[in-house]
Amino acid sequence: MPRLPPVDRLDLDDLVHRYAVLVDQRAFTAVGELFTPDAELVLPDPPTSLRPTVEVRGRDAVIGALGRLTGFAATFHAVVGRVADADPGDPDRATGRVACEAHHVSVDEDGRARDLTWYLHYDDAYARIDDRWLIARRALSVDVIATGPVRKVRADG
Protein backbone atom coordinates (compact mmCIF):
# COMPACT_ATOMS: atom_id res chain seq x y z
CA MET A 1 0.00 0.00 0.00
CA PRO A 2 1.18 3.52 -0.70
CA ARG A 3 2.54 5.44 2.26
CA LEU A 4 0.82 8.57 3.46
CA PRO A 5 2.72 11.85 3.61
CA PRO A 6 4.03 12.61 7.13
CA VAL A 7 1.52 15.41 7.75
CA ASP A 8 -1.39 13.07 6.96
CA ARG A 9 0.05 10.36 9.20
CA LEU A 10 0.27 12.88 12.06
CA ASP A 11 -3.29 14.08 11.45
CA LEU A 12 -4.61 10.50 11.48
CA ASP A 13 -2.62 9.74 14.61
CA ASP A 14 -4.23 12.75 16.29
CA LEU A 15 -7.67 11.62 15.10
CA VAL A 16 -7.48 8.14 16.62
CA HIS A 17 -6.00 9.38 19.90
CA ARG A 18 -8.54 12.20 20.12
CA TYR A 19 -11.32 9.61 19.69
CA ALA A 20 -9.96 7.59 22.66
CA VAL A 21 -9.60 10.62 24.92
CA LEU A 22 -13.02 12.08 24.08
CA VAL A 23 -14.76 8.73 24.60
CA ASP A 24 -13.19 8.47 28.06
CA GLN A 25 -14.27 12.05 28.82
CA ARG A 26 -17.78 11.06 27.69
CA ALA A 27 -17.77 13.95 25.24
CA PHE A 28 -19.86 11.97 22.78
CA THR A 29 -21.03 14.93 20.72
CA ALA A 30 -17.38 15.87 20.16
CA VAL A 31 -16.63 12.25 19.27
CA GLY A 32 -19.43 12.41 16.70
CA GLU A 33 -17.66 15.35 15.04
CA LEU A 34 -14.69 13.05 14.36
CA PHE A 35 -16.90 11.06 11.96
CA THR A 36 -18.16 11.99 8.51
CA PRO A 37 -21.87 12.93 8.45
CA ASP A 38 -22.76 9.57 6.85
CA ALA A 39 -20.25 7.48 8.80
CA GLU A 40 -20.71 3.83 9.65
CA LEU A 41 -19.84 2.38 13.05
CA VAL A 42 -19.98 -1.41 13.25
CA LEU A 43 -19.85 -2.92 16.73
CA PRO A 44 -19.65 -6.43 18.14
CA ASP A 45 -22.34 -7.95 20.35
CA PRO A 46 -20.34 -9.63 23.12
CA PRO A 47 -20.43 -12.29 24.30
CA THR A 48 -22.56 -13.54 21.37
CA SER A 49 -20.19 -12.15 18.76
CA LEU A 50 -16.77 -10.56 19.10
CA ARG A 51 -16.77 -9.57 15.43
CA PRO A 52 -18.46 -6.41 14.16
CA THR A 53 -22.11 -7.24 13.52
CA VAL A 54 -24.24 -4.29 14.70
CA GLU A 55 -24.14 -1.35 12.29
CA VAL A 56 -25.18 2.23 12.95
CA ARG A 57 -25.04 5.03 10.36
CA GLY A 58 -24.65 8.75 10.73
CA ARG A 59 -23.24 10.97 13.44
CA ASP A 60 -26.34 10.93 15.63
CA ALA A 61 -26.41 7.13 15.59
CA VAL A 62 -22.69 7.00 16.44
CA ILE A 63 -23.24 9.35 19.36
CA GLY A 64 -26.17 7.24 20.57
CA ALA A 65 -24.22 3.99 20.32
CA LEU A 66 -21.27 5.38 22.25
CA GLY A 67 -23.62 6.83 24.86
CA ARG A 68 -24.09 3.29 26.20
CA LEU A 69 -20.67 3.70 27.82
CA THR A 70 -22.23 5.98 30.43
CA GLY A 71 -23.32 2.81 32.21
CA PHE A 72 -19.73 2.36 33.37
CA ALA A 73 -18.16 4.22 36.28
CA ALA A 74 -15.08 4.89 34.14
CA THR A 75 -13.50 3.89 30.85
CA PHE A 76 -9.93 4.05 29.66
CA HIS A 77 -8.94 3.52 26.03
CA ALA A 78 -5.22 3.10 25.40
CA VAL A 79 -4.15 3.16 21.77
CA VAL A 80 -1.30 0.67 21.61
CA GLY A 81 -0.66 0.61 17.88
CA ARG A 82 -1.78 2.21 14.64
CA VAL A 83 -1.04 1.84 10.97
CA ALA A 84 -2.56 3.73 8.05
CA ASP A 85 -2.26 3.44 4.30
CA ALA A 86 -3.10 5.83 1.50
CA ASP A 87 -5.75 4.95 -1.03
CA PRO A 88 -3.82 4.63 -4.31
CA GLY A 89 -6.68 6.14 -6.29
CA ASP A 90 -7.74 8.99 -4.01
CA PRO A 91 -5.44 11.24 -1.93
CA ASP A 92 -8.39 12.15 0.31
CA ARG A 93 -9.01 8.54 1.39
CA ALA A 94 -7.05 6.20 3.63
CA THR A 95 -7.50 3.01 5.61
CA GLY A 96 -6.07 1.96 8.92
CA ARG A 97 -6.01 -0.46 11.80
CA VAL A 98 -5.86 0.70 15.42
CA ALA A 99 -5.03 -1.66 18.29
CA CYS A 100 -6.51 -0.64 21.62
CA GLU A 101 -6.82 -1.81 25.21
CA ALA A 102 -10.22 -0.66 26.46
CA HIS A 103 -11.04 -0.78 30.17
CA HIS A 104 -14.67 -0.56 31.31
CA VAL A 105 -15.01 -0.20 35.08
CA SER A 106 -18.29 -0.96 36.80
CA VAL A 107 -19.23 -0.73 40.47
CA ASP A 108 -21.85 -3.05 41.95
CA GLU A 109 -24.39 -2.16 44.63
CA ASP A 110 -21.95 -3.28 47.34
CA GLY A 111 -19.30 -0.87 46.10
CA ARG A 112 -17.07 -3.54 44.54
CA ALA A 113 -15.47 -2.40 41.31
CA ARG A 114 -14.58 -4.68 38.37
CA ASP A 115 -12.66 -4.00 35.19
CA LEU A 116 -14.01 -5.49 31.98
CA THR A 117 -11.08 -5.20 29.58
CA TRP A 118 -11.38 -5.57 25.83
CA TYR A 119 -8.24 -6.07 23.80
CA LEU A 120 -9.56 -4.92 20.47
CA HIS A 121 -8.81 -3.48 17.09
CA TYR A 122 -10.60 -1.04 14.83
CA ASP A 123 -10.55 -1.41 11.05
CA ASP A 124 -11.02 2.13 9.80
CA ALA A 125 -11.70 3.99 6.59
CA TYR A 126 -10.83 7.70 6.66
CA ALA A 127 -11.93 10.58 4.46
CA ARG A 128 -10.44 14.06 4.22
CA ILE A 129 -13.19 16.67 4.06
CA ASP A 130 -12.33 20.37 3.96
CA ASP A 131 -8.68 19.59 4.82
CA ARG A 132 -9.68 17.58 7.91
CA TRP A 133 -9.36 13.81 8.29
CA LEU A 134 -12.49 12.10 9.65
CA ILE A 135 -13.58 8.53 10.29
CA ALA A 136 -15.84 7.35 7.46
CA ARG A 137 -16.18 3.78 8.74
CA ARG A 138 -15.03 2.11 11.93
CA ALA A 139 -15.48 -1.62 12.58
CA LEU A 140 -14.64 -2.77 16.11
CA SER A 141 -13.50 -6.35 16.71
CA VAL A 142 -12.82 -7.70 20.19
CA ASP A 143 -9.87 -10.08 20.28
CA VAL A 144 -9.77 -10.93 24.00
CA ILE A 145 -12.06 -10.19 26.95
CA ALA A 146 -10.62 -10.18 30.46
CA THR A 147 -12.07 -9.22 33.83
CA GLY A 148 -10.46 -8.37 37.13
CA PRO A 149 -10.93 -6.55 40.41
CA VAL A 150 -10.32 -2.83 40.80
CA ARG A 151 -8.91 -1.42 44.02
CA LYS A 152 -10.36 2.10 43.80
CA VAL A 153 -12.28 4.30 41.36
CA ARG A 154 -12.02 8.09 41.47
CA ALA A 155 -15.48 9.45 42.20
CA ASP A 156 -15.34 12.34 39.70
CA GLY A 157 -14.47 10.07 36.73
Automatic annotation (TrEMBL):
Q: Which Pfam families match?
A: SnoaL_4
Against InterPro entries, the record matches this protein to: NTF2-like_dom_sf, SnoaL-like
Coiled-coil positions: none
Domain SnoaL-like: from-to ranges: 8-138
Regions crossing the membrane: none
Known CDD domains for this protein? NTF2_like
Please report the name of this protein according to its UniProt entry.
SnoaL-like domain-containing protein
Look up and give the organism this protein is from.
Nocardioides kongjuensis
